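User: Hi! I have a protein structure encoded as tokens and I'd like to know what sequence might fold into it. I'm fairly new to this, so please keep things simple.
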């Protein structure tokens, strides 16, 4: 069974912030000497970091849920709670992180140690020491911690190869990779031998130093078929690996029934899948020429050159060459041409300033900042994490604490929305499972 896992879904949750504490200084002859409740600690955030130590996403097949540590609640003597530890999830370099709910790309991790925050930990609640004011010098209330964030993410691994070898099944792509690198892909004379991409490093001849490149990474992309752009076969799975390449080597079986039709088919699938792919520099390699007369191979090359000369709308390859991956005829010159194009591409990229990844805004969207109101059996039920947490840290027997609770609900807009929903004095209002009577201090 294949162990190459290139797309997985995971669920990540940042830590809750710890609640604040209601505490008092206990001094001789003055047991309640003033507020001394500490703040709660921040919840741990969740980061995703790229590393060169991994090459697949297979580990996520066995573990798909990740939760950061909660912050510790505050305590007496103004002791603040410890912050929860951040959680770092490591993925292979080349991983794209996508928000499953919105479909938006959060990050494209293409460098070692590159990282992005995907869930921000909840803020810690405030203890009664910091809530003291000149008017309220001894508050009997505190603030709850903020909850963590839950997100569902899709991780997609795309190969980080400089050059991608494309073509129909059995065109000789794996044979070419084996001929020019030390990679040992599985090779056999039947379609769909390659079911997962193979990577190899091409070492250029020392005489190629003139182009400023020692070598480059070459990827053998599994054979494409008609309809690949719409997901037929394993089309999308294969095509996504071509997206990051700088150059394409289009390998065509020169002995097939209609090599030109084969070229057109693959180029059409590239264009349908992504216009960027179809516009990448492409080197066309007519393979298996050892099975043809030299005159036949040259005639085929001229036929294809004529086609592109007459069809200016078609994306013209940089060059067309005749090769034999089996006997390595013409492969050195082909790789040298690839090296030149890769170097040109890298030089262009250096001119563009790489933008730093900002923190994804959704990573800060804590659920505590939203609430809703429903009518149930004549009562008004306030739903939401923040209102519930406020009730949980409120001393319901203390009038001052209750007043603070209602003031916080008013600031959130809960009271105004209750009025819009038709609440009247005497109506039952349920918050965090506790029933209050509207009008008795709540209004």
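Assistant: Happy to help. Inverse folding works backwards from shape to sequence: for each of the 443 positions I chose a residue that suits the local structure. Here it is:
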């Amino acid at each position: 069974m294949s162990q190459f896992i290139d797309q997985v879904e995971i669920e990540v949750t940042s830590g809750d912030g710890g609640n604040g504490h209601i505490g008092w200084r206990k001094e001789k002859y003055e047991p309640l000497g003033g507020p001394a409740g500490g703040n709660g600690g921040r919840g741990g955030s969740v980061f995703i970091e790229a590393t060169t130590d991994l090459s697949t996403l297979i580990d996520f097949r066995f573990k798909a849920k990740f939760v950061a540590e909660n912050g510790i609640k505050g305590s007496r003597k103004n002791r603040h709670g410890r912050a929860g530890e951040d959680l770092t999830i490591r993925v292979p370099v080349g991983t794209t992180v996508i928000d499953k709910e919105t479909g938006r790309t959060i990050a494209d991790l293409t460098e070692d140690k590159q990282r992005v925050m995907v869930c921000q930990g909840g803020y810690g609640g405030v203890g009664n020491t910091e809530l003291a004011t000149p008017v309220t010098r001894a508050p009997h209330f505190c603030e709850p911690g903020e909850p963590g964030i839950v997100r569902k993410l899709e991780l997609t691994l795309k190969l980080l190869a400089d050059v991608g070898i494309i073509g129909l099944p059995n065109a000789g792509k794996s044979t070419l990779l084996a001929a020019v690198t030390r990679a040992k892909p599985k090779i056999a004379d039947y379609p769909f031998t390659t079911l997962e991409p193979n990577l190899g490093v091409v070492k250029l001849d020392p005489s190629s130093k003139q182009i400023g490149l020692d070598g480059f990474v070459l990827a053998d992309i599994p054979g494409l078929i008609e309809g690949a752009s719409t997901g037929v076969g394993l089309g999308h799975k294969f095509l996504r690996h071509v997206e990051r390449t700088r150059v394409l080597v289009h390998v065509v079986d020169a002995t097939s029934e209609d090599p030109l039709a084969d070229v057109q088919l693959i180029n059409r699938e590239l264009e349908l899948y992504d216009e960027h792919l179809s516009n990448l520099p492409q080197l066309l390699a007519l393979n298996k020429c050892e099975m043809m007369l030299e005159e036949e191979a040259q005639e085929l090359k001229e036929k294809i050159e004529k086609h592109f000369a007459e069809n200016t709308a078609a994306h013209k390859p940089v060059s067309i060459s005749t090769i034999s991956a089996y006997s390595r005829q013409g492969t050195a010159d082909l790789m040298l041409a690839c090296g030149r194009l890769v170097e040109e591409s890298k030089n262009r990229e250096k001119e563009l300033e790489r933008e730093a990844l900002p923190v994804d805004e959704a990573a800060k969207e804590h659920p505590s900042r939203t609430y809703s109101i429903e009518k149930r059996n004549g009562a008004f039920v306030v739903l939401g994490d923040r209102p519930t947490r406020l009730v949980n840290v409120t001393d319901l027997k203390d009038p001052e604490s209750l007043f603070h609770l209602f003031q916080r609900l008013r600031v959130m807009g809960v009271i105004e929305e209750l009025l819009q929903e038709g609440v009247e004095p005497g109506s039952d209002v349920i918050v965090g499972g506790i029933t209050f009577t509207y009008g008795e201090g709540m209004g």
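A useful reference point when you look it over: Confidence is low (pLDDT under 50) at residues 187-195, 225-236. Feel free to ask if any position seems puzzling.
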